[in-house]
Every structure is written in C-alpha cells, then in structure tokens.
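Most newcomers find our protein records easier to grasp once they have seen one. A learned vocabulary of local backbone shapes supplies the integers on the structure line. An example says more than a description, so a record of this kind follows:
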Amino acid sequence: MHTLFDRVFNRLKVGNSLAERLRFSFMVILALMLIPTLVSIWTMRSYADSYHQAISQVESISSLKPLVTSDIPDEMWSIVAGRITFSEGRQYALMDEVNGTIEDLMGTAAGGKSTELTVTRRTMDTLKSYIDRMGEQIASGAMVADNEALLEEVRSVASLVGDMLEKYVTVEISATMDTSRLLQQQLILILWLLAALVAITFTFAMLAQRSLSRAVRTPIAELEHFAGAIAEGDLLARVDKPEVTELRGLTESLNVMAGKLQGLIDENRREQENLKRSELRTLQAQIAPHFLYNTLDAIVWLAEAQRTDEVIHITRALSDFFRISLSQGRDWIPLSDEIKHLQGYLTIQKIRYRDILDYEIDISPELYNRQILKLLLQPLVENAIYHGIKHRRGRGMVRVTGRDQDGKMMLTVVDNGAGMTAERLQQVKSNLQNDAPADGERGCYGLFNVNKRIQLYYNQPEGVQIESGESGTTVSLCVPFGRNEDVQGISGGR
C-alpha cells in the first residue's frame, strides 16, 4: 500500500526511479536550507552596512567638533594676540578640512540628515565670512578691541556649528538605535522561520528516508532470495520485475544469468576483455565533455567580442576534432587523421591559452599513411597542458615528434612545464604498472587510458614511457605500423 508520501511523489510525477526521488528530495531539502540562509546573510549584511555607515559618520562628525569649537577660535586668538600673522594662520586649512568632511557626509546622508548637514555647511560659510572680515580689519590696522569683538562673533558661530554637529550625532545615534530595534525584530522573525524550516526539513527527510528505504528493501529482499536459489543450483528460478527503475536492469540481468549461466562461464574470458575495452572507452569519452564545455564558452566569449574570424576558426577546429574523434566508429585511423585531430585540439587550446601556450608538430611525412590506434596523442598533449604548462611561469611549449625507429612508430610529446619531482614521477609510473590510477589521482587518467589501450590493442607489454624533471616532462610511445592482427580479431576486425 502506498503511503501519503508515495502518493505525493506520484502526483509530482517524480516516478519510481531512485535517482529521481533522491534528486527531488535533495533539491527540496537544499531549498529549505538555502532560502533562510540567504535571507539571513542578506539581512545581516544590509544592517551591518547601515551600522558601519552610521558609526563612520558619527566618528567623522565627532572628529570635526574640536576643530570647529577649539582649533579655529584658538588660531584666530593667536592672530588677534599678535603671536602669528593672519597669513601664517591655519584657519583656512582647518575650515577646508571641516567643509570637505561635511560635503562627503552630505553625499551619503539622506532625508532630514542631509538637510541638517546643508544648514551646517552654510553656517560654516558664515564663519568663513567673519574670518575674512577679521583679515580685512587686521590688514587695515583696526583697533585690537574691534578685532576682539569680531573674534567673539567667530567663537559664537563656531559654537553654533559645534551644536549643530552634536545635534547631527544625536540624530544619527537615534537612527542607529531604530536600526538596532528593527534588526532585533528581523532576527526574531528569522529564528522562528529557521525553526519552522528545520522542523519541515526534518519531517520531509524522515518521510523521504522511509519511502526510499521501503522502495529498495522489498525488491532487494526478493533479489536476495533469488540469488540464494541460484547459489543452491536452482537455475530455473526467476524473479518478477520490480517497480524501482534502477533495479529493473539488475533483475533482468539476473534472470538472463540464470538462463545462460553455463554459456556465460564458457565466454567469461572474452567478456572480461570486452569489459576492459568498454571501461577504457568510457575513460576516453570523459575527454570530450569538459573540453566541449570550455570550447563552447570560448566561442560564446569570442562571439560577444565580435571576433568573427576567430569564432569561425575555432568552430572549424572543433568540427574537425569531433569528426575524427568519432571516425565512424573505427578504432584505427591513418596517422594523418590523428595529426589533424591533434591540430584541431591545439588550435582551440591556443586560442584559449594564447598568452601561455606555443606548440610544434614535427612528424615525418612518411608516417602519415600508416594506421594507428586513434586518440593516442591528444590525451598526452592535454596532460602536458593541464599538468605542465598551466603550472609554469611564463610561456610554455608543447612539442610533438614522430619518427620511424627500427620499423616501429616512435611518437613523443615534450613540454617545458612545471615537471615532476622524483617521488611524483615514481608514483605515476607505479600507478601505470598497477593498471589503474590511485584513488583521487585524476591527473593520471589520460596517461593510464593511453597506456592501457596500447597494451590491449597492440598486444604488447610496453605502453607509454615517462621522464620528467625541473625542465619539463617527456612522454613517448613506440608501436608497430598498423594494427596487431592478433588484437584485430578480438576487436571485431574494425
């Protein structure tokens, strides 16, 4: 009997696939967790910016008050007392500093606070007019008493400006307190929202876990019983097709296995060889996706930049690259096609890495018509670029050479990239000898793929040879001309 949760899955057309159910459950849980997190981050960032701006403005205004109420009047008193001349005084420099700060604050303030700063700025203009008058009186030889009277006016206006600044600080602090109260209210609301979403997420996760567990447990139990019957020798046993999509293929395979077990045992060795080839072709297919994504991104970027010639050039190179990669399903192609395939790849990479990459292909023309297992060179060049040239400072060079050596084809890929330490080189060689890259060793897949395909298709123990040091890395391979006839029969004669 389906539960309510199962009916919800069916109503949303999620289906019986475990992958679809897991993906749907993950997306729901992710949305429930991300939405409040993003809202919280945005809220905190917004109020943090408001706090920072308010505190910065208060600090700026606080630093202006002593300049206006103390430093400017004291400077004018020194002038009136005859300690310094009017031209030697710093009164105008101090006023410029105050006016500059007020104008900066006016650019960020809003509403009533901007109006208060405008009034303060105008009052500073009044203060400047008094100082100008005092300069004129002193220049005309006015009496000290007249200068002292005008000094009192300066002090009064400076005190008024100081009061205005203090009032602005009070208004700013009040606005900050309002912001603080609003933030507290928002935080309380967010906390309640988080609590509700956590409860919803927990409930959803529990229901999803039970539904998925039940969907898997029942057919697995049936498969376990079926496997036990096969183990006891009952090759007539069969199991019904389950509702879970992912287990249908397994069920069908087990039923076929029960009906053809004897024949599969006789064909086991050949099937194991075909399985290895399938795995290697899967590794080979992994070369294309990320390269295609990056190339299409480059084409879009060039098109947006209206660099039409380069768009045409890189698109043709991409077309040649995949045309030769497919090769109508053939595993063996002329070396000239392998070179075209490599040139298409390098043309694309040259456009993407024009500032760091140069390349050179030097292969004897007499080898062009020779048959070669396809996709041997491109993974090695890709490995040289991504693990050598990209880690080098300055421009790098990849050089591909090909020669006839004692009736065999000697192909070499040399780069002047970062190279490998002796320990790292030994580790890579060990991975190749162990027939598989170590866990997490993503950088070895290209080398491993080429190495294993050479061993299988050419039926020879030697694959790729690697030498590396501070000046770069050299990877070489030596294979017979054409295909090995023993291997040809296993590969279906393609």
